[in-house]
Structures are given as structure tokens and as C-alpha cells.
Design a protein that fits this description.
Chain lengths: 501, 501
């Protein structure tokens, strides 16, 4: 409790009475519920309103159990991921695959019974990876497979050759004597540990995101990083790299863990290490892409939106199965199953498949900008962008007054044996602008134990998606979204939070 | 027993009396063994010679136990593999890395106390992989990573595009109607199961070795194979491909298991599948390489050679850790440990690190040819070319009269808990010309459960070598080689066997 009391403040200007009004309105519009029981419950709830939050009805909880059972036997999410990776494949921003994915998504929404299907056109960057070459020249020459980091600049055709220096991370870089990396190539050698959550990624991602800029500011001519990876397979992991205007852009490549180990052994010899990097990465003019939006319309609270987010784009080398065909499959399936089960959600379920999450988040920003006037209607969000699951922990980032309903939702997920997390759900990137404006979120936390083995590699294929895990994830999303849409209280705004960097 | 009675016939012209003479000679030359006991043992053995084979002495078995204990705590094999992969790296036939490996091997032999260190120069093919590109054009376009099969021809610069047909294997190919694959690209889709032994590899390798030639003979313009792989990681596996003179050479590529699955889904759609392949593979003039040879000289039976074989070359994309830096480390360490332990083997231990195993076996053939006159002196062989281990089964291919000593050796390996195999050890490629001429072999069978996850891929790095496993393997080789060198009987020739294709 301390945690969310400290961190999550109620938004101003929201009256608890709004909840009661909504419940009364709802009760008189819904068919098939015995009036006397409902009135009794309402009066009880209204009486207790100033002390205890509203509770989800037995009918809705009962429907949740049937929905859960159905979802546990449903393989739609896996099939969607398989379809997207097979029939579209790579769908990097600005490529033909990206456009094909937009078409695919609309077709699937139609097929699955969504309504109000539409696209929101978005300008996206068109960064071209080209070819990367990396080789140790001294002391012991050998080439190693590599990938350019997203957004980095290429080298001259002749490549860049320089003596190299090995450092752990940005903090270690700052401690080097002045001039130490001038005209050098910097090798960031910062291994990460295997974890179920994001903690190691969060700790180390600054090297990938900021290593090139930091090294450039100190005069380096190139950067090589140990991939942000928990795998011993020989795949380099790409990923976004910030390119601030105030320092020269320099080329930056990632190498796999086994190659980073081998390179570290070369440094350990005590001899001078010389490296060669070559990259034909380049920027081309922006292209059109689109967010794809579809809905399961609500009933009495249709103007309130429960938003389910996942990004549709992928990196270019793989087919983006865990990142993020799985997430696309999970959110589409969650909404679809609610409808297929014959349930009528009070609030509108809106699935948004975002463009350009991987290298720019243009889709996310465009969505927030276009809905500036109706942001407050986005009353609750949930996002899937951490693989195929299973969900191991159910957390939230809601107003303290609404934590009770999170407990209720968690109990409804009981058969899935999911741990109860805190009210500090980390959230994902695409919904972060909405969270920053006070939208509460559900945190169905996907198990990331093996996620960083494959994330942002060519190895991100359907072989990495476990059918049982993604089924469990879709079930979790379906049940929690259903109950979030039925919550008889009003989802109160949370304290504004800066969007993720 | 039936197995080797049927399969392994005694070579002609070998007299059992030769064993007794050898034992007597030995006994009088060896220092530190009490003459009376030795004479008693000898007389007993000589009396029983026509009925029962000679047995390894208690002294030699006792030395084996001390050797085993030492080897179990020794990490030389791992260190050698790490050194070869780090300081040389890829060493494909005809490349500078290949020559560097020859220099490295001689240095290591010197450092480890070998004698008679020398090279045998060998002409090796110089096949250049170049770049391979593979893409599905229809029904759902997407590129997939691929590798050319060894020895295959490249495509025109424009690549080859054609409608494709999917078949399982060569047998299925033959059952197609006449003309069915004319001007087509053939996709061989023949998955293999995970096994500890070679069985699945043996079953399916004909597709890799003979698929291109068979398809070409039927008019195909290109071949794509599902890699001979047990991995779900996205690595294509290369490997040798026969290029007979009587059919046109056609390009042939391998794709990974997850890509083969995805391609099979495209075929499963029922629509026409069109593929594009491009390869810049080509042949360049032959180059010089060398077998590297070093010895631990024997004592009274010094003219008899126990040969320890492993190939020094690797494929070009990886650093050849399990294939075959591990094997190099194991055989060098086995001989080294015997010497380091202060043991004086009766027979000469000869380590031969062969050139060009991967794409031509020129080193193996050259060795056999150069030793044509002294082949009979190669009395026993052991080879390491199936990864880092551990050894899971101890088998042999020896004369039936010598199987008893294999049992003795197996018992001496007791602490390692290795299963007892048959007298039909499969053997490896480099010693096969010697086995074909009647040389018996020990079969220290390395556990291949995960070997075909990595074999012939860019992913063959030191991360795939388990330090404990390679230590156990080197211990097994050391003990069995030591006892094989001490065997007081005479290693009898086995029936000639055709070399492996």
C-alpha cells in the first residue's frame, strides 16, 4: 500500500459520485438482471461509496470465468502471430512489409468481428540498415557478425579502422582520462543477467541508446556494443540508438555475446586491439505508415474507451514473432473473444496496432496528438509488447481508490496462477503518452525470462512462440479487459507521469 | 558377440604367436617391473594364448587410474579449443586462417612436449562461399537467411527465379512424374530428430550430399534444403555437397529449421510458390595446407603407431569450436597428459591434425597415400570429430580376438560411467582410409544430443563447449589411448571396410 500511496496520486477534479451515477445509469439499461437485486446492490454500494470502492458484479465475474475457460482452449492468438509472420514477415517502418502489415491487420479485424475499423496515417522514418561488417584486425584477426544499431550513420566505403578501448558502460566511459577515447573505437562490454522482468534491460539499455552519442562527444570514431542479450547463440541484437543533434553521429554496431566474450579475450591478452567497422546504414525520406484501429463498441459507457495496444511494426532482420506479432495476436484475440463469447462490454474496447514502435514511436505520438481532445475518454489501457508470455504477474498503475478492483480482477484470473504485483506496473512504450496524461493501466506482465535471448534479432521467429504461453496470455488479457470494461466504478485518473524515454 | 562375429573378420596372415614374442621383448626392456612376476605372467599368458587374449597389466591399469584422476582435473583441452578459436578463428581450407592454424598447431605441440613435430603439405580446394540470398517471391514474399552448400556453383548475378516444388528426400524425388521438376527449384524438406548418436544424420545426409546432383539430373535449376539441424534457432547449416561430373552443377542453399517451417506453410497454402536464389559461390585455384603431426615416442614397440586424429580446418562462417577445435583439444590433451604424467607408452602415440576434412578430405587421403608402405604400422586409431562430448559410450571396431581388451579399457573408464557399445564403432572421416585398410579403432563416442544444433553454422563458438564435458572426453581419450598403447597382445587387423562416402 505504501508503494502506491507514495507514487500514485489521485488526479484532481474527479468526484467519487460520478461512479454512483454511472452505476445507476448502467443498471437501468442492462437487460436480464433482476431489478430488485440490482437496486439493493446499488444502494449498498452507494452507501459505502465514500469508504469502499465499487465492486465488479457477480454476473460479470461469472461471465469472466466462462470467458477464461473459452480462452484457455483457443489458439487464435498463436494463429494470428503465425499468419502475420508468414504472410507478411518483416515489417520494418517504411518498407513494403510495413504497408502489407497495415492491410493484413484490417483484414484480420474484419474477420474477427471488429467494428469501426480504420487507419490513422502516420509519417515514419525510413532508416536503412544496409550491411554491417566488423572485424578484429589485431592482435588476432577475425571477422564477427554484427548489426548496426537503429538510427546510426554508416561509415565511409573504406570502413573505419582504429585502436579500440573496452569499457563497461556509460559511467565507466565518463571516468576515463581526458582524450582517452579520442579517435578510438569504444567497445561497451556490459553483460546482462537473465530475469523474468525488465530490470536488467532497464539497467543496461542506456549503453545501446546513448553509447554512440556519449562516445562521440568524447571524440570516438565508432562504437561496438555487446548486445543487450541473455543468449549464448551468435546473434547480434539491434535496437534504437539516440542521435542527438549536438554531437556528430558515429557508426555503432552490436555483436553477439559469444563474440563479445571472444573480443574481451583479445583485450585480456594485454595487446593493442585494433578494430575495423563498416556499415552502409543510411536515412531515406520519411514514408507513410499507419496505426490500425478497431473496436468492440461499448453499451451504456460506450464513450469510455478501454484501449488495448500493441505495435504492428518489427525490426527488419527477423519476422518479429515475439516482437511483436505475439502482442498483436494477444490484443486482437482478447477483444475478439469477448465479442465471440456474446458479451457486451459497457465500455468500448479499442485495439490500436501502432506503427513505428521500434525506431521512432511515431505511431504512438500521432495517436496521442490526434486524440488530444478526447484523452480523458481513454479510461483504461493495457499493452502487449514483451513477447508471448505467459503472464506471470498481474500489476497495475491505477488510482489508489481503484486498487480494489485490480484485486478482484486478479482473483478472477485465479486458475492461471498469476502472481499479484504492485501498483507500479512499468507499462510499455506505445501507451506511455496516454499514461503520462493520467490514464490508468492494467499490468499483465509477460514472462521475459527468455525474451532477451531473441529480442531484436534475426532469430525472432515463430519457433520462439510457445502456443500454450500465448494462449494463457490472451486469456489473461481477455478476462482483465472484460472486467476492466465492466467495472461499475469510474476509473479515476492517475498522476501524470513522464513518458518512457 | 554375434555382431562382431558377423561383421568383423580377422585379417589374414596374422599369427597369434606374434603377441607372445612382443610381450617377451617388452618385458625385458621395461625398467622397474619385477622380473619374476613378469616372467610368471608372461608364461601364463603364453600358455593361454591360443584360448584367451592377452590382458593389460595391473601396473598399466593402475597408471590409467592415476591418469584418469589427473585428466579429470585438467582443463587443457578446453584451453586449447579456446586458444584456437580466439587466436586463429575461422580456418577454412585455403584461407589465411587455415595456414595460421597450421602454425598454431605446431606451436601447441611444442609447448605440450610433443616430439617429431612436422607438417605434411597438402593441396586443398579453395571454394569461396561468397554471399547467398534466398527469398520467397510468391505467394507471400519474404527473404530468409541462407548458406550455400559447400562445393556448389554460384548463380548468375541476376539470381535464379523459378516455381518451386517441395519434396521430402531423394526417394520422394525419384517418385515424381517425369518432367515434374524441370526448370524448377526443389525444396528438400526433411526434418531430423534429436539423437545422441549419428543415426539421424546418417539417414538424412544424403539430401545435403546428393540433393543438388539428383535434382540437376532431373532438370532442376536450383535446390534449397532444410538444414540438417536439430535447432530451432535461425541458423542455416552448410556442409559438403557432391558435384559429380556427369550432371550440370546447380546452386544449392540451406535454410534454418524455422524458415523451412515457414516455407512449408507457404506450400501448405496450396498456392504456387516461387523462389529466388542467388549465390556468389565459386572455385578458386587450389591452395597449400598441411596435416600437422606430432608424437609421443613409444618404447619397445615404438614402430607401432597408435594414431589420434582430429581435423584442424573449420568451415568459414564460424570459429569451429565444436567442429573441431574441441576435437583438436581432446587429442592433443590426451597424448600430452600421458607424457605429463610421466608415462612411457610402449607404442608411439601419433597425433595427426588433418587438413581439409570439411570440404574434400585432402588431408586424410594424402596421409594415407604418403604412408602406403607403413599402413600396417598404424596398429590402432581413435578420432575426435563429433563435438566436445562427454563420451557416452565406449565402442570399438577391432578384431574379435581383441574385444576382451576393449572390455578391460571400458572397465578402466568406470568412474566416468560410460556405456559399453558394440564392436561396430562408426568411426570418423579422417581415419576411414586407414580403417578401410584394416586398422582397428577405439570408439570413444561423443554425445551428439546437441551437436546438430550447431554443426556447420556460424553459431559454432566456444559458448557451445561445456568445460566439464570436454574434460571428461579428454580423460576418456587419454586413458583409452594409454591402455591401447600398452596392450600386451598384438592389435590384429580387421576386415577391410569401404571408406565413408
Amino acid at each position: 500500500m505504501k508503494i502506491w500511496n507514495e507514487k500514485v496520486e489521485p488526479a484532481e477534479g474527479v468526484s467519487p459520485c460520478a461512479n454512483v451515477l454511472a452505476m445507476i445509469t448502467h443498471a437501468f439499461r442492462r437487460p436480464g438482471i433482476q431489478l430488485t437485486i440490482t437496486l439493493f446492490a446499488l444502494l449498498t454500494a452507494a452507501g459505502a461509496m465514500s469508504q469502499t470502492p465499487a465492486k465488479i458484479s457477480h454476473a460479470d465475474l461469472s461471465a469472466a470465468q466462462a470467458l477464461l475457460k473459452r480462452a484457455q482452449g483457443d489458439s487464435t492468438a498463436y494463429q494470428l502471430a503465425e499468419s502475420l509472420t508468414t504472410e507478411v514477415g518483416p515489417r520494418f517502418s517504411g518498407t513494403p512489409g510495413d504497408r502489407a502489415a497495415v492491410v493484413w491487420a484490417q483484414e484480420q479485424m474484419r474477420r474477427l468481428g471488429f467494428e469501426n475499423i480504420r487507419t490513422q496515417e502516420v509519417d515514419v522514418p525510413q532508416w536503412v540498415r544496409g550491411e554491417a561488417e566488423f572485424a578484429v584486425l589485431e592482435p588476432w584477426p577475425q571477422p564477427m557478425p554484427s548489426l548496426a544499431l537503429g538510427g546510426t550513420i554508416g561509415t565511409p566505403n573504406s570502413g573505419v579502422e582504429a585502436e579500440a578501448i573496452m569499457v563497461k558502460d556509460l559511467a565507466a566511459l565518463k571516468q576515463l582520462p581526458a582524450g582517452a577515447i579520442n579517435n578510438r573505437i569504444v567497445f561497451f562490454n556490459n553483460p546482462i543477467e537473465r530475469r523474468r522482468d525488465w530490470s536488467e534491460y532497464s539497467r543496461a539499455v542506456s549503453v545501446r541508446g546513448g553509447g554512440a552519442a556519449a562516445a562521440s562527444a568524447l571524440g570516438a570514431v565508432g562504437v561496438v556494443i555487446r548486445s543487450l542479450s541473455t543468449s549464448s547463440e551468435r546473434f547480434a541484437h539491434t535496437g534504437g540508438s539516440r542521435q542527438p543533434q549536438d554531437v556528430p553521429r558515429i557508426p555503432a554496431l552490436a555483436i553477439s555475446n559469444p563474440d563479445a566474450d571472444a573480443l574481451a579475450r583479445q583485450f585480456a591478452s594485454g595487446r593493442t586491439v585494433r578494430l575495423r567497422i563498416k556499415s552502409t546504414a543510411r536515412d531515406l525520406p520519411k514514408q507513410r505508415s499507419a496505426n490500425v484501429i478497431g473496436e468492440i463498441p461499448g453499451t451504456d459507457l460506450a464513450e469510455e474507451i478501454v484501449i488495448l495496444g500493441a505495435h504492428l511494426d518489427s525490426w527488419d532482420m527477423g519476422v518479429g514473432a515475439i516482437d511483436n506479432a505475439a502482442g498483436v495476436g494477444i490484443v486482437l484475440t482478447a477483444a475478439h473473444l469477448i465479442r465471440a463469447q456474446g458479451l457486451k462490454p459497457r465500455r468500448t474496447l479499442r485495439v490500436v496496432l501502432f506503427a513505428n514502435e521500434e525506431n521512432g514511436s511515431a505511431g504512438s505520438r500521432a495517436y496521442a496528438a490526434a486524440h488530444e481532445q478526447t484523452l480523458a475518454n481513454h479510461v483504461l489501457g493495457i499493452e502487449s509488447d514483451y513477447g508471448a508470455g505467459p503472464v506471470w504477474q498481474f500489476s497495475s498503475r491505477v488510482h489508489p481508490a481503484d486498487v480494489g478492483v485490480i484485486d478482484q480482477i486478479h482473483r478472477a484470473l485465479g486458475p492461471l496462477k498469476i502472481a499479484r504485483g504492485t501498483n507500479e506496473a512499468p507499462g510499455n512504450a506505445d501507451l506511455s503518452p496516454l499514461v503520462a496524461r493520467g490514464m490508468p493501466i492494467l499490468g499483465a506482465e509477460l514472462d521475459g525470462t527468455y525474451y532477451l535471448d531473441v529480442h531484436h534479432t534475426a532469430n525472432d521467429t515463430m519457433a520462439q512462440v510457445d502456443p500454450a504461453a500465448i494462449r494463457q496470455s490472451a486469456a489473461t488479457f481477455a478476462v482483465s479487459v472484460w472486467l476492466g470494461a465492466q467495472y461499475p466504478g469510474k476509473w479515476q485518473r492517475i498522476a501524470p507521469k513522464p513518458p518512457r524515454p
